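From the pipeline queue, job 12 of 40. The input is one protein chain; the requested action is below.

Action: predict structure.
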Amino acid sequence: MPNPSPVVITRILRPKRRADLLRRPRLLDFIHEHIDRKLIIVSASAGYGKTSLLVDWAHDTDLPVCWYTLSETDRDVRVFVEYLLASIRQQFPTFGHRTEAFLSNAGGGTLDPGSLASILVNDLYNDIPDYFVIVLDDFHRGESESVNFLLDTLLQNLPDNVHIILASRSIPRLTPKGMALLIARREVEGLGTNDLRFDANEIRALLAQNYHQHIPLEQAEALSREAEGWITGILLTTHSMWKGLFASIVEAKGSGSKIYEYLANEVFDQQSPVIQAFLRGTAILDEMTPSLCNRLLNRRDGRQMLSLLEERNLFITRVERDDEIWYRYHHLFQQFLLSKIEDAAEKRSLHARAAAILEEDGDLAAAIAHYQAADMPHEAARAITLAAPTAFSSNHWQTLAGWIDGLPEEIRAENPRLLWYRATIHAQLGEIDQSLAVFDLAEKAFRQRNDEVGLADVFINRSTPLRFSGRLREAEESCQKALTLLENLPPGPARTRSSAEAHRFIGICRMQLGNLTSGLDELRLSLSLYQDVGDRFGIANLHSDLGTALLMTGNISGSDVHFDQAVTLWQELGALGSLANTLNNVGLSHHQRGQYAKALEIYERALAVAQETALWRVQATVLAGMGDVYRDLGQYDQALAAYNEARPLAERASEAPLVSYILDALGNTYILTGDYLRAEELIRQAYEQARARNSRQSATVFFASLGVLCYERGDPKLAIQYLSEATTVLQEIGARRVLPRVRLHLAHAHYLNGQWDLAVATLETALDDAAALGYDQFLEPLGRRMIHFLRFALRRRPDNDHLADFVHRVEQMQPSSVPETPPGPLVITTTPTLKIYGFGEVRVLRGDTPVDPRAWGTARAKEILFYLLSFPHRRKEQIGQTFWPELSAAKVRSAFHVTMYRLRRALGVPDCILYEDDRYYFNQRIDYWYDVREFERFLAQADHLRGTDPVAYEWHLKQAVELYRGDFLESLSLSGEGWHIPLAEALRQKYIDSLLELGRLAAGRGDYDDALNYYQRIADKDSYIEVAHRGIMEAYVHLGDRNAALRHYRQLEDYLRHELGVAPTPETVHLYEEILRSS
C-alpha cells in the first residue's frame, strides 16, 4: 500500500545555492553574529529575498543546518512535527525516537502542543550534543494556533545548542508573554523589510554579476528608490529595463495597478511561446522533476526546459539529494503563473492528469489534492479509500478527516467505508454524538449494499462511543449484533480478529457492569482468538485486560502472570501508552498488597512513560493510583494534589468512569480531613454519574462511601443501611476485591452503633473475605483508622489468630511514611563538582568521572577552558584573535558561541563561563578544584611563611611540587597561537625553584636522600641546570658515595660537550676538583 501522506523530501532538503545569487555580507554577518540567539526572525513581504539570504547563509556556515520549508498542510501540528522530525534527521538520523513514539501512541487525536513540545525538547537535549540550526522557511504558510503555541513553548525551553531561524511574511504570532520573555532575555533578533531592501551598491553588484551590466550609481539609486529595494521587482525589471521598463515603474505604481503583476507580465511576455506554455502547464505542480513535467505535458525535454528556466533566473529553485533533482517555483511567481491559465477547463485537465500520474507513482496525498482541484469528487473518494487504511493506522486522523469532509455529502453517502473511518475518528477524538450520528449513516449505507463485513465493523466500533458515554448495555448489544453477523461469514483471519475484538469489548462492558465472572470468560475467549491469528497487539491487550480483571476479583497472583506477559510484549512492540497503562495496573497490584514504596516506584515509572505519550487517560489513572497510595499513608495533601492533577486529564480524555472514581476518591480524602460538606458533594456527584451509566459496581462502591460519611458524621444507624445494601450487591455480583473493605466499614458502623457482637462477627467475615483473596494488606490503612475497634474485637476473640495477626500489623504501621524506604544516613561529600588537571596529562572530571572526550566536540573547547582559567576577563576579540585569526569578525562570533556551548555542556555547569562588561571569565564561585590554582596557592602561602614558620613553609613547598605532574598542557594538542608558552615556562621555573629550595632545606638538615631526590627531579626536567647537578654531587658525597659523584660529573661533562659544545661552569668544575682532592 502506498504511503498516503509521505514527507515531501524537497521540503526538508537545503536548497542549492544558485550561481546567480548575490552574496550580501552585511546580512550574512548579522546572522553569524547573532547565531547564539534562540530565534532569528527574517520577516518581510513576498519578494524581498528571504529564502535566498538563508540559502546563502546555510551554505556559508560550518554549523549543521536542518532545513524545513512549510506549506499549508503543516497547520496540523502533527504534520508540522513530523516534518520537523524528518528535517532534523537529515543531519542527525537517530534523533527523536521518543517524539516519534509520542506521536504514535497519541493516535490521531488532538495533540496537546505543550506536551509535544516538552517531549521534543527532551529529545533535542538527550539526542543531539552538537550546536546546530533549524531553518523554518515560509513559516507563514504553516501558521496555526497550535503550531504557534508549540513553537512558543519550544522556544521557551530550547537547549542552548539549538537555534531557530524563521523566515515569514509576518512576525509569528507567539504568545505576548513568550515573545516578551525572549526579548527580555535577549534571545531574539530580527531582520525586517528595511534591512532586506537592496541598496544601490547591491543593485549594481547584482547587475554586474548576473547581467554583465554596469550602471551608474545614480541610476542604481533611482532603481532602489522606485522599487523600494524590492529585489523581485528589481529582478523582473532587469529582464527588460533596457527597453524602457525602468522608466515605467513609477507610472505603474502611480496607476494603482499591482506592480508585481505588471512586471511579471512584462517578463512573461518576453518569453517564447514554448517557454510560456511550459510555465503555464507546470504551474499546478508544487514540486517538479523532469520526468513529471514530461509526463504531464507529453514532452521529452523537461530537463532542458527546467535548466533553461534556471539559467534565465525565472524564479525557480533547485533542490538536490545524491543524484535526484527537484525544482519548485517561487510561491509568488507560481501564483502569477496560475493566473495565466485563463481557461478553467484547461486548469482542471492539468490537475486531472497530474492526479493520475501522482496516483500511479504512489503519492496519494498529492493525487487527492489534484483530484479535488480538478473537481473530480468520485476519483478523489476512490483515492481517499485507497489511502485511508494507511492514513488511519499511521494516526493521520485529522488529515484523513479533512479529506473526507472535503467531499460532497452525496459522495460521502455513496462510500460507507469512508463514513466508517470518519465515525471512528470522531469516537477517538471524544466527539461522541457526531460519532454515533455518522455510524448510523454508515450502517444505513452498508445495509443498502448488503455488506455484512462492513455492518459488523460498524457494530463493533460503535460500541466504543457507547461505552465512553456510559451506555454499557447498548455497547454490549452492539458487539453481540456483530458476532451474529460474523457467524455467517466464511472463516478466516479477518473474521477471527473481528470476533476477538467483539468479545473483548463485551468482556470490558461486563466487568464495568459488575458481571465479573462472565466478563472474565469473554476476555479469555478473546485472548484465545487473538492467539489463533498471532496478533501480538491483541494478545498484549488481552493480557493487560485480564490482569486488570483478575485484580478486580482479587486474584492477584493470576493478575501478576498476565501483567508480566503484557509488559514484555509492550516493550517488544515499543507501545509506550499501553506499557504505561499496564505498569499502572502493576502498581495497583503492589498497592493492594501493602507494598507502598514499590507501588509508588512503579507508579512513578508508569507516569514517566505516560508523559511521553498524549494519553491523558493513562496519566490520569496513574495519578489517581498515586493519590490512593498517599491517602493510605495518611499523606492527605499529597493525595489531594494527585487527584486534582488527575481530574482534568480524565475529563479531557472523556473517561466518565475514571472521572467518577476520582470524584469519589477526593470525597473519601475530604472525609479524612473532616471536610464533610465537600466530601458529600463529590461522592454524590460520582454516584449519580455511575447510576446514569448503569455501572452497578461503581455505583455500589460510591453508595458505600456515603455510608462511611454517615458514621463519620455521627449517624451509624444510617451508615448501616447504606453499607448493608452495598455489601449485599457486591456479594451478589462477585466483586471480591472491594467487598472486604466495604464489609470492614460495616463492622465499624455496627461497633459505633453499640452492636458489638454483630460488629465482631462482621469483622471476622471481612477478614475471611480478604483471606480468600490471598492477601489483606489493603485493609491495613483502613484498620489503622479504627484501631480502637480492632483492639476491642481482639479482646472479644483472643483465640482468632488471623485477627490477632492483622491487629499486630496495623499497630506496626507508620501513619505518614513509606515503610520500605527508611531514611539513610547523612553523607557529606567533599568531592568538588569539577576537578581540572592542567599539569602533565590534561584531564577534566565531573565529580570522579572523567568528561567523555566526545563531549568536548573539538579540542579547542578544552583549550579555551584553560585559556580562561589562565587569563580571566578576556574580551571576545582577544579570544577570537588567539583561536580563529583566519575568520571574519562575524564568523568568529559564531564559532565562539559554538565553542562556549560545547565547553559548558562538557563541564555540565551552565554558569561556568560568565560574561560581564564585554569580557568572559571562568566563574570562580562554582565548586571546582584546579591543580594549577592549587600549585600557585601553595607557593603563595609558602612565600608568606618564609622566615616565620620553617616547618609549614617546607610543607607548602612539598604540596606544590607534588601537584606538578608534568609541564602545563603538555599532553594537549593546542590550536591557539602559542598563548600558553610563557605561562608554561613560568610555572616550570617555579617548580624548579621550589625543588631547588626543598633540596637546599633537606641538605641543610642532613637529609641527603631527600635532597638527592629533589635535585634529581630537576635534572630530569632540565639537564642544563648545573646547580641541580652540583646538588646531586654533594648529596652523593655526604651519602659516602664519592665515586657516584665523580661519575655524575663525567656524565654531565660528556652531555654538555656533545649537546652544546661547552664545558661545565667553573663552579661545577671547582666542586669536582674538591671531591677529587678529598678522595
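Job complete. The mean pLDDT is 86.
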